[in-house]
Amino acid sequence: MSDLKFNSMTHFEAVARLGGVAKAAQELRVTPSAVSQQLRLLEHQLGVRLFQREKRHLSLTIDGERLFQTTTQAFESIREVRNAIVRQRESFQLSIRVSPSFGEKWLAPRLAEFSKDYPSWNLRVDATPNFSDFETEVIDLDLRYGDGGWAGLYSNCVVNDLILPMCSPSYLAELRANSPDPREQLRHARLIDSVKAYFRWDYWLPRNGVQGARMTYPYRFDRSSMSVQLAKDGAGVVLESTSIAFEDLVSGSLVPVSTEFDVIEFPGYWLVCPSRHMNRRAVRLFSEWVSRVGKRDTDLARQFLSDKELRISFERRPHFGTSM
Fold this sequence. Notes:
Blueprint: H1 6-18, H2 21-28, H3 32-46, E1 51-54, E2 57-60, H4 62-91, E3 93-98, H5 100-117, E4 122-127, E5 141-145, E6 154-167, H6 169-178, H7 182-187, E7 191-194, H8 201-207, E8 219-221, H9 224-232, E9 237-241, H10 242-251, E10 255-256, E11 263-273, H11 281-307, E12 312-314
Parallel strand pairs: 3-4, 3-5, 7-8, 7-9, 11-12
Antiparallel strand pairs: 1-2, 5-11, 6-9, 6-10, 6-11
């Protein structure tokens, strides 16, 4: 049996199941003579007759019935597995890993929009600061925070970050009551530190000519969303991104400290995966969607800040940050 040709078995199973050579030929998309040839080859290999031929009617012999019982079970199992694979592929199941604050503040509010465009998709989102090990974990793609260029992986920037100091209106009023100079205000401000951010106070303050600021950071968080929340509550000034805080800026619960400081723009969030994953249609479609939405929202943030008379400068900093 191990020497039997799979093609011959396929033809035999179709004839036995459908009850005729013509129907089998139609299903297999071959000619009836090709089916008959495969049946003769199989009978020759086995040394037995599998069908009784009476005019145009075929009926299984005892040996044919025994073989059919085995093959029909095997082929039915194969068809079930094939159909399951096709259904899974067509349902577009996708496993995504995303940095926690970006997942909460940017991705999650946009997934309702995604579900309208792709209603049949099944998404699993894992919000964690840990990058995926694509060789050992079942993850389709990461949305990573950083400077790009991960060795051996495909990466595409999907969202540019726009960084600026911001605080609550009430806290800004306190700072302005002490001094009209924004640099003097920051020298005496409580600075909230997002410890995993790419741009932090120790870089930003000297870059903007703020000397003598209190660098002890009474509040330090490894989640940008927590830093932003504390700033909204009036506890200090946070150096953060519009990707995390845009809705708060739009609503007015956070405000820029001053128009004297340029907003830093840099490529902050990246779609990352092994190159082979991009061969999957689901990964490609999600990549196109998140890139399109990311560009749209970056443009909206730029326009909002420009309307506030803030200047924007593009920058890449030679320092690696971890997931926010």
